[in-house]
């Protein structure tokens, strides 16, 4: 990165910054609207302009969204559903990452006849539209006795996450020389030993990618959540949808927006904190330049 | 024991193999079968023939959905790539605060449209959002009312979709630019090639694989686009912004016309197949490295 | 202990409060209630969830279902027989025949109605109407004339939300108003090709085109309650909407006859939209007991009254005293009784009371496509006939 | 008893035959070097010996035991890889002891072995580091250490020096040689660098396209290459291969070499030989001498050279290389650093005929 | 007038000083080689000359014109990079002509130039191919072609051969040398390979840590290294640097070298010298001879050696290397291939004292 074809003309550079900042504003606009709205009183929302800053800050909508907003007959806010999402996302992310890592390890380092075809088959699975699988999946979950439960949701997310995690890990592990496996074989280590002692410790960047990707996908999922959850297992996105669509008298936009931000906070946080590694790992793992 | 040792790799893959076989290909087969029945509210398994496909292709709404897919998909892919590439090139000019800008461009990927849908609706709503705001600044004739014009509404979907995905494309391209050998750029500088030509004639052509990856990611997003439409227009005005995914969903779940939904799903699947298979082929073909 | 898990999408306005009433009563009788609200998309999301639940063999004990969908589900999966409760409580006697029909599957009781909404209401802002000297229109011509006056005065004549079901709502009131009850029955209930292809239908589309001109520019994607708010706040004069709109007026402390006026849509008749609960086959005594208890409570006079006071509709039972109800509700009850006699008590197609999903959806597609484009009436009629034919 | 015996080994990937009928046998203490151009199958052969690739035909015996089908860890071998293949997340110490740990060797023995090997290779100060913190040469030593602690019957090395820079390569080469002498170990060593092969081996196998070209001691290979491929491959600068015509004259052999812009150079080999009319004359750069000063050197017959036009002169420290054109080919001579040779001037050169090879231009085989 | 003059050049990245006070001047037709270990700043210096890196102090003059601050394309230079830096999506022909095209040279001239360069480099058959379809050597030629068409005042080469294998490196080296002779071009050439430096250069700059150690002709550098770093760096195997004690004895110099398990080796230099008591004796492997047969060689004084214990013998085709230990250091001698030397046996060696260097052990500077 020492020397790039860098534009040096000052006028041009100003223009450059102008464009970059303009786009930044464009990307920030919806978040800005949500954030400011969530901090305004209803009165101010009705009278003021959408894009104006709050005249008077209020955090009441946040409190309400978290613990007392109503969905249907319940007025518990997002809190219980938030924990549902956590209970669902954490194991689902962990399992799909582990399975993807093992799969990727096999595809990259233990090739066998037909492995490529199978890998292609798994990849194609990444592209299947989820609406298609709702009904047969419901049937299968029923058969397996985990319909309407958090384990059921975890199962679904794991199944449809494997494709991507396998892809990430496989593309990452192919860059590790095969000689490493060979050396370990000569040393007498077996399949799992090699994986746990040698590959897993090497995998931090790609684990980061896999975890971020899966976490965003699973946390943000609505379709599976609404279809496969029972009364006690609805994830936060479903609750958010219920709250936003529940209006008593006047629509509490500020509460809706606060709820939306709360529901999005974990993924947002993950991107802001780990986004750098995400880009880096993604180029290592999924894109070949 | 020996056998076990030799077959561990296959055994490790076995659960995934079964899962994919059943939960992807089994379900596709199931859908294919349903598309050949007269299933309505719930699946029925008596074979009927290709009537559902005939109905599908006769439905004006499906035509609109497919047309929209091509308009939306085409614009979304092209614009996202153009913006992504442009931002990547700009960011590549040793920009201060690059890290912050990158995060800002990328964060929409973290958000679901379930979350941002309302905000977008407001922003696009002429009476509340941009139009109203600009008018309140004194530009009385400013109009931005695509959301409510049937022939323009699909472009608002494009706008929101570009908002969500272009940052990601930017990241891909930026990584690509960063991986270009700096010696090539130096060679070009010594050769007297101006900066814009260095990009257009030398760097960008080397990034063909990244274009392909970006195209696939975007195409897949476009075909799957669902939340976006539901959150922004719910298919309206009329069904002007319907896409195959929303058509399928509507048929399956609000119309109780499962057979029809399955037929549309199969057509979608074929479109995906046509795009993804060449990609998979290029991805898995043995590479002859430089 | 009776158990009930209730899947519903009553999450808006007075609805949630109304369900809460039921929940309280259920609990008071010793039952345990599990709420399963799935909001959004006018019940689409709920229907998705329902299908998934049924397919996984884990159907909820009670589901908010209505119209022919009840019979359709019955055919697909069977529904629980609540005949004993119905007979014990004499439902047959207190329900209008037409509505009772909806609650029965092959002669057996399988659902319980909670209310009757009248769909063909037109709401007006009293102040605006008075200002311009306009009376509530009784024919579509009067409506058009009034709208022209308002438009000329710079008032938005009709508050409307750009969602296809709202378009369909207006459409069915126009069909009823211009064609009369018999035509409505033929066209939107029996799907008689002749009626669908008739001149009357052409006129209906003409009128739709006219109405389109009375709607403001920003209507796209607007929720119905926001449209109601426009009338409330004096931003528009009329709204054509079922009586749930009244809930919004009342919730905002507006008085009928003082702040707003209600009237049947031009042409009269009674388009009903009956909310009901259907009961799926479930295992376990406690859940079956829960179903019975729930059915009894729903049809109880107490609940019917409280619920409908909250929701703006009228009780399905004809024997509930209407003293506490407002004028509009009483007007509605009278019309229902009258309609039951003279055959103008008709199911609303727009709210899924008249048709199964596929043909209803096909019609809506044409209506909304016409309303939101510059399609000619002839084209619309032709498409309508085609769409209905293929959706059968 | 040979420590390693390879018998009619075949190796194919699907339809692609990589190794054809390989027969090799080495005695304990031998240092066998497999040498050949890139892609000729050296690594594949080594992997077959290690058991990392299944073979498609033939047998492999290590220490007399047939190991065909035996898994690598049970073959009593140790291997050093080109990229060293150090476990990147483990410390140097763990890299070395990992194999023992896997085999369940007790801690005390592990520590003792580690200490011994670390001393031997002088890597004691590095034991706590990660491979990423080591220089190329240090990594190489660690990889070697990992092999040494196994105390195997047979060491396998796959181009262990090719990732080092020229300087380091030379010094590591010497160390490996020393190690071999000290341990009296049996080694199979792969390289594509012929200098490495020459300096290290007690026995060299030259391969090309999966076929063995020649097996022999370094001196045999260098002095009597079996064919033109070996002649060209071994030695740097390469052996000069000069097309020439033969005129047998009684008990002498007259050889004519075309010269640009002058009469052919005629050389008289004092030995009578059965040669075809067209041959390729192979002569190493160091066997071409300055005719004046060195005419008295043994083997340098009279009439073994003449004046030629020198094109390029490359002084290289200890030697000076002079390039001319003979028989249409550039010919390099390695002269003393002090030589008075000048570019673009005539200069007298002579061939040491006692060391010349003759090849058939048709099949490239050696003729003398 | 010098073609390139570098005057007190400084280069720093922030606080890190990479190049310190560089002064170099070369004449037209010179072949200047910058040599030094990795990271010593060779590429940085070359990039500064090219204008690819801004300099922090001093001036650079090309053809008499001060080009400090002038952009690369206006410096009238051409550059060949280590990775060749060919434009990967363009054909070979376009790679070569692209620069001309951008400068607006007309088609006919472009074609003529291309043809000329292609002929010169013998790449005519490759013109339509993409770089990815070329071998390393071919790419190297194309990169050279791209430089040649520019017809610049000065060529800059950054390790152009380091990506090639040993064999190809040698032959490309010769080609570059030839090209230099044919074009009589002025060249600055970076390498870390001292053999390349020796064979190619008319003038060598040895660098270390951003500081110039010595500037001189190859012979000067090789025979009279300015300090121990240069002595050690240039030549392979490296110069033996042997700690020794000095006893001056009138018009002779007695030098004692510690020997393991035996009395010190005493060498008598027949010249009187001003040396400190402790020195480091530098002697190149080829200046250590078999004492018996070579005693009559010029410069090989009597008493210049003795019997030593030989530890390793490495036959390497044309030569045989013998390693012993003297003064606690391994010492390598380069003997004739036919030498009778044996490992683990005593053998008589003698130093050519006319070529020996003496260094100060304190600062490493040359003393004689
Ligand atoms: N898995 C494989 N499938 C098919 N062909 C292979 C496979 N592995 C190696 N080959 C081929 O076998 C041949 C020999 O490869 P090998 O690695 O043994 O060469 P090598 O002599 O070690 O070369 P290098 O010096 O470059 O390491 C090559 O042509 C290679 O392309
Ligand atoms: N952009 C930079 N910022 C800071 N230090 C740098 C930068 N570029 C190079 N350096 C440092 O400058 C020193 C000289 O680098 P340079 O590339 O010139 O070495 P070199 O002699 O060419 O080495 P090599 O033989 O490995 O190519 C190195 O220590 C390097 O780390
Ligand atoms: Mg190899
Ligand atoms: Mg460099």
Task: Walk me through this protein's architecture.
Chain A folds into two domains: 56 residues; 213 residues, MetI-like (MetI-like fold), CATH 1.10.3720. Helix content of chain A is 72%, strand content 0%. Chain A contains 13 helices and no strands. The two termini of chain A are 16 Å apart. The N terminus and C terminus of chain A are likely disordered. With 290 residues, chain B is mostly helical. Chain B has a single domain, classed as MetI-like fold (Orthogonal Bundle). In chain B, helix 3 packs antiparallel against helix 10 and helix 12 runs antiparallel to helix 13. Chain C has 392 residues and is of the alpha/beta class. Chain C has a five-stranded mixed sheet. Chain C has a four-stranded mixed sheet with strand order 9-10-8-11. Chain C is globular, with a radius of gyration of 21 Å. Chain C starts with a strand and ends with a helix. Chain D starts with a strand and ends in a 9-residue tail after the last strand. Chain D contains nine helices and 20 strands. Helices cover 24% and strands 35% of the residues of chain D. In chain D, helix 2 packs parallel to helix 4. The longest helix of chain D is centred in the middle third of the chain and has 18 residues. Classes of the chains: A mainly alpha (289), B mainly alpha (290), C alpha/beta (392), D alpha+beta (368). Chains in contact: A-B, A-C, A-D, B-C, B-E, D-E. At the A-C interface, helix 6, helix 11 and helix 12 of A face helix 1, strand 2 and helix 2 of C. One magnesium ion binds next to helix 1 of chain E. Chain A: Keywords: Membrane, Transmembrane, Transmembrane helix, Transport. Chain A: One of its GO terms (biological process) is transmembrane transport. Chain A: It is a multi-pass membrane protein.
């Amino acid at each position: 990165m020492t020397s790039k074809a860098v534009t040096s003309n000052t006028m041009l550079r100003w223009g450059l910054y102008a464009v970059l900042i303009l786009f930044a504003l464009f990307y920030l606009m919806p978040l800005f609207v949500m954030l400011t709205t969530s901090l305004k009183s209803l009165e101010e929302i009705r009278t003021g302009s959408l894009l104006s800053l709050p005249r008077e800050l209020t955090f009441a909508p946040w409190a309400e969204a978290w613990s007392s907003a109503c969905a249907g007959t319940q007025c518990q806010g997002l809190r219980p559903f938030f924990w549902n999402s956590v209970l669902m996302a954490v194991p689902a992310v962990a399992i799909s990452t582990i399975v993807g890592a093992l799969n990727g390890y096999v595809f990259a380092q233990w090739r066998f006849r037909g492995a490529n075809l199978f890998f292609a088959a798994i990849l194609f699975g990444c592209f299947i539209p989820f609406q298609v699988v709702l009904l047969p999946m419901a049937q299968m979950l029923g058969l397996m006795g985990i319909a309407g439960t958090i384990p059921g949701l975890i199962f679904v997310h794991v199944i449809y996450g494997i494709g991507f995690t396998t892809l990430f890990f496989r593309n990452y592990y192919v860059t590790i020389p095969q000689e490493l496996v060979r050396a370990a074989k000569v040393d007498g280590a077996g399949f799992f030993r090699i994986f746990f002692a040698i590959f897993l410790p090497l995998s931090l960047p790609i684990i980061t990618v896999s975890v971020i990707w899966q976490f965003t996908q699973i946390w943000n999922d609505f379709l599976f959540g609404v279809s496969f959850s029972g009364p006690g297992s609805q994830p936060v996105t479903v609750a958010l949808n219920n709250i936003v669509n529940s209006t008593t008298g006047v629509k509490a936009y500020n509460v809706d927006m606060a709820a939306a931000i709360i529901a999005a906070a974990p993924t947002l946080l993950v991107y802001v904190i780990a986004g750098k590694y995400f880009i880096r790992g993604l180029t290592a793992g999924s894109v070949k330049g | 024991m020996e056998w076990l040792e030799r077959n561990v790799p296959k055994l490790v893959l076995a659960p995934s193999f079964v899962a994919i076989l059943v939960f992807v290909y089994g379900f596709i087969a199931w859908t294919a079968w349903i598309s050949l029945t007269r299933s309505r509210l719930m699946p029925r398994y008596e074979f009927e023939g290709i009537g559902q496909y005939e109905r599908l292709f006769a439905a004006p709404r499906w035509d609109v959905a497919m047309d929209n897919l091509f308009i939306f998909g085409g614009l979304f892919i092209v614009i996202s790539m153009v913006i992504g590439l442009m931002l990547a090139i700009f960011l590549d000019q040793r920009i201060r605060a690059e890290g912050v800008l990158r995060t800002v461009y990328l964060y929409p990927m973290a958000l679901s449209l379930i979350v941002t849908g309302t905000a977008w609706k407001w922003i696009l709503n002429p009476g509340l959002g941009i139009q109203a705001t600009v008018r309140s600044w004194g530009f009385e004739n400013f109009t931005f009312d695509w959301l409510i014009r049937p022939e323009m509404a699909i472009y608002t979907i494009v706008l929101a979709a570009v908002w969500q995905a272009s940052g990601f494309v930017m990241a891909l391209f930026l990584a690509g630019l960063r991986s270009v050998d700096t010696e090539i750029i130096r060679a070009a500088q010594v050769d007297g090639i101006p900066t814009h030509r260095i990009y257009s004639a030398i760097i960008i052509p080397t990034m063909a694989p990244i274009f392909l990856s970006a195209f696939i990611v975007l195409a897949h997003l476009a075909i799957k686009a669902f939340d976006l439409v539901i959150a922004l227009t719910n298919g309206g005005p009329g069904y002007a912004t319907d896409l195959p995914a929303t058509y399928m969903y509507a048929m399956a779940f609000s119309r109780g016309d499962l057979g029809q939904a399955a037929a549309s799903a199969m057509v979608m699947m074929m479109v995906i197949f046509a795009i993804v298979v060449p990609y998979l082929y290029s991805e898995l073909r043995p590479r002859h490295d430089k | 202990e009776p158990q009930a898990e209730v899947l519903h999408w009553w999450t808006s306005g007075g609805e949630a409060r109304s369900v809460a009433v039921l929940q309280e009563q259920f609990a008071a009788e010793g039952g345990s209630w599990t709420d399963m609200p799935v909001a959004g998309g006018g019940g689409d999301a709920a229907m998705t969830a329902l299908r998934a639940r049924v397919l996984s063999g884990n159907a909820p004990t009670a589901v908010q279902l209505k119209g022919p969908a009840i019979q359709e589900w019955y055919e697909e999966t069977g529904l629980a027989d609540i005949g004993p409760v119905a007979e014990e409580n004499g439902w047959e006697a207190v329900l209008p025949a037409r509505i009772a029909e909806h609650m029965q599957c092959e002669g057996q009781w399988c659902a319980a109605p909670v209310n009757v909404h009248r769909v063909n209401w037109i709401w007006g802002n009293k102040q605006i109407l008075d200002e311009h000297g306009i009376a509530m229109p009784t024919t579509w011509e009067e409506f058009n004339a009034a709208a022209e006056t308002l438009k000329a005065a710079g008032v938005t004549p009709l508050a409307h939300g750009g969602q296809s079901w709202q378009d369909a709502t207006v459409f069915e009131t126009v069909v009823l108003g211009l064609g009369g009850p018999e035509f409505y029955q033929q066209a939107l209930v029996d799907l008689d090709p002749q009626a669908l292809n008739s001149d009357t239908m052409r006129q209906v589309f003409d009128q739709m085109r006219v109405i389109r001109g009375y709607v403001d520019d920003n209507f796209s994607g607007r929720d119905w309650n926001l449209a109601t708010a426009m009338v409330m706040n004096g931003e528009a004069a009329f709204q054509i909407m079922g009586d749930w709109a009244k809930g919004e007026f009342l919730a905002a402390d507006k008085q009928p006859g003082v702040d707003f006026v209600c009237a049947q849509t031009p042409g009269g008749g009674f388009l009903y939209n009956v909310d009901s609960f259907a009961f799926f086959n479930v295992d376990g005594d406690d859940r079956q007991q829960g179903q019975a208890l729930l059915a009894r409570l729903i049809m109880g006079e107490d609940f019917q009254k409280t619920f409908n006071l909250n929701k703006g509709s009228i009780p399905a039972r004809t024997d509930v005293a209407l003293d506490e109800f407002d004028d509009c509700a009483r007007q509605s009850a009278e019309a229902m009784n009258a309609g039951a006699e003279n055959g103008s008590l008709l199911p609303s197609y727009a709210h899924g009371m008249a048709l199964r999903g596929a043909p209803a959806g096909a019609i809506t597609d044409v209506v909304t496509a016409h309303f939101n484009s510059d399609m000619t009436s002839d084209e619309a009629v032709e498409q309508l006939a085609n769409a209905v034919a293929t959706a059968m | 008893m040979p420590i390693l015996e390879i018998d009619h080994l075949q190796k194919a990937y699907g339809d692609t035959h990589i190794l054809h009928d390989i027969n090799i046998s080495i005695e304990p203490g031998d240092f066998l070097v497999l040498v050949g151009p890139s892609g000729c199958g050296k690594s594949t052969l080594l992997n077959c010996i290690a058991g990392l690739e299944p073979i498609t035909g033939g047998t492999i015996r290590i220490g007399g035991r047939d190991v065909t089908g035996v898994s690598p860890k049970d073959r009593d071998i140790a291997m050093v890889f080109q990229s060293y293949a150090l476990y990147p997340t483990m410390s140097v110490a763990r890299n070395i002891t990992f194999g023992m740990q896997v085999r369940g060797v007790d801690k005390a023995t592990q520590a003792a072995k580690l200490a011994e090997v670390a001393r031997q290779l002088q890597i004691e100060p590095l034991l706590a580091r990660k491979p990423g913190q080591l220089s190329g040469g240090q990594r190489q030593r660690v990889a070697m250490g990992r092999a040494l602690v196994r105390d195997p019957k047979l060491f396998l090395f796959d181009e262990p020096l090719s990732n080092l820079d020229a300087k380091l390569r030379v010094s590591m080469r010497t160390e490996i040689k020393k190690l071999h002498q000290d341990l009296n170990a049996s080694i199979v060593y792969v390289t594509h660098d012929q200098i490495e092969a020459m300096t290290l081996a007690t026995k060299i196998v030259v391969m090309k396209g999966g076929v063995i070209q020649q097996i022999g001691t370094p001196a045999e290979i260098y002095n009597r290459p079996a064919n033109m491929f070996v002649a060209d491959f071994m030695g740097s600068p390469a052996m000069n291969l000069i097309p020439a015509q033969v005129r047998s004259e009684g008990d002498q052999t007259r050889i004519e070499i075309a010269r640009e812009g002058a009469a052919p150079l005629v050389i008289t080999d004092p030995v009578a030989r059965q040669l075809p009319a067209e041959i390729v004359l192979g002569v190493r750069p160091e066997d071409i001498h300055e005719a004046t000063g060195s005419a008295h050197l043994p083997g340098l017959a009279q009439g073994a050279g003449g004046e030629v036009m020198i094109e390029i002169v490359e002084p290289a420290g200890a030697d000076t290389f002079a390039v001319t054109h003979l028989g249409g080919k550039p010919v390099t001579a390695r002269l003393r650093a002090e030589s008075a040779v000048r570019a673009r001037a005539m200069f007298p050169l002579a061939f040491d005929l006692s060391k010349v090879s003759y090849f058939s231009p048709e099949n490239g085989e050696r003729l003398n």
